[in-house]
Design brief:
Elements: H1 2-28, H2 46-55, E1 73-77, E2 84-89, E3 99-103, H3 114-122, E4 126-130, H4 149-162, E5 172-176, H5 179-191
Parallel strand pairs: 3-4, 3-5
Antiparallel strand pairs: 1-2, 2-4
Helix pairs in contact: 4-5
Length: 192
């Protein structure tokens, strides 16, 4: 009897760890499967709920479907994680007060920050909207929820400082939402 309980407990332990692994994998690795997230649980049949419970949700690669209402320059930034796609836009004023680099959150893209970028431009700042690794038009198909994305932040800062129109370090602002803020904090703390 003890042996059976031990065997059953071991099987439950292994199965629950396999399910946890599948959820973690699907959370951090984007897929191209039909391009949509799994529906809300209320919309799923019982068998589909069980399937999602065992294998994790469908997590499609974030895309930039919106287009800016202001003129942007398409920019490619070299990052240790692969090439990053970005949009650079100057303000309507003659000389920018500085530059704001914007970093999106989990399952987002640079297009999700167009509203904020518009406000920064109205305030007289140039903006750089970055698709982090695995999102939009950037390389990759996975995320580390801010850990390796900090390399993307550091690469964007290096890019801005290397430009002819680069602003002084005092006039460079990093703006992040959710995972973008995590990446900024890690880049500042560990990567300088």
């Amino acid at each position: 009897m003890k042996r059976r309980l031990l065997l059953l407990g071991s099987l439950v332990f292994i199965a629950s760890n396999m399910v946890a692994f599948m959820h973690a994998w699907r959370f951090t690795h984007f897929t191209d499967e039909d391009g949509r997230h799994s529906p809300n649980p209320e919309q799923l049949s019982a068998s589909h709920k069980l399937w999602v419970l065992l294998t994790g949700v469908n997590n499609p690669r974030p895309q930039s479907h919106l287009t800016p209402s202001f003129a942007v320059e398409d920019v490619t930034i070299a990052s240790p994680n692969g090439p990053l796609a970005a949009w650079y836009a100057r303000p309507d004023t003659a000389a920018p007060k500085g530059t704001v680099a914007l970093f999106h959150g989990y399952t987002g893209s640079k297009a999700h920050l167009l509203h904020e970028a518009g406000y920064f431009r109205q305030l007289g700042y140039a903006v750089l909207l970055v698709d982090q690794t695995g999102s939009g038009s950037s390389a990759g198909s996975r995320t580390t929820i801010g850990y390796r994305e900090a390399d993307d932040v550091a690469a964007a800062v290096r890019y801005l400082r290397a430009q002819k129109t680069a602003t002084s370090p005092d006039s460079l602002v990093l703006y992040g939402v959710s995972m973008g803020a995590v990446a900024i904090m890690r880049a500042e703390a560990e990567l300088g």
